[in-house]
Amino acid sequence: MTQYYEGIGRRKESTARVRLMSGNGKITVNEKEGAVYFSRLGDLDDILRAFSATGQDAKQYDITVKVNGGGVTGQTEAVRLGLARALVLLSGDNTALLRKKGLLTRDARIKERKKPGLKKARKAPTYTKR
């Protein structure tokens, strides 16, 4: 059994369980290669920002991710938070560096609920005088 460090990240409706273990830079997301799963330009770079913030090389770790719920942006940011939390478990020295870059703060913004009498959360039906 290989030693791994696990971090859980959440954003909007997405939840990601990120496992970090020593390896050769392989990223696996839901049994797919990371570049295939996060095909949008810049998403994979955004996820790996935690490594550049701590000055570590992503090539010396294998990353395994189970992510579900939400959309592309929510999943990307959930994985980013999970990876940052796993790096803190790996070495507590990383905490100040990651906190300074804002990578350990959970983004609490979620979809606002729909109110009765309105079409969406805030959109009111069109006013008609007659």
In short:
The protein has helices at 34-37, 43-47, 49-54, 72-90, 94-100; strands at 5-11, 14-22, 27-29, 32-33, 61-68. It is of the alpha+beta class.
> What's the CATH topology label?
Ribosomal Protein S5, domain 2
Q: How are the strands ordered across the major sheet?
A: 1-2-5-3-4
Tell me the CATH architecture: 2-Layer Sandwich
Q: How is the main sheet built?
A: 5 strands, mixed
Specify Rg, calculated over alpha carbons. 18 Å
What is the count of structural domains?
Answer: 1
Q: What is the CATH class?
A: Alpha Beta
Helix content: 25-40%
User: Which regions contain 5 or more consecutive residues with pLDDT less than 50?
Assistant: none
Average pLDDT works out at 94
Number of helices: 5
Beta-sheet strand percentage? 15-25%
Helix- and strand-based class?
alpha+beta
Number of strands: 5
Which sequence of SSEs, written as H and E, runs from N to C? EEEEHHHEHH
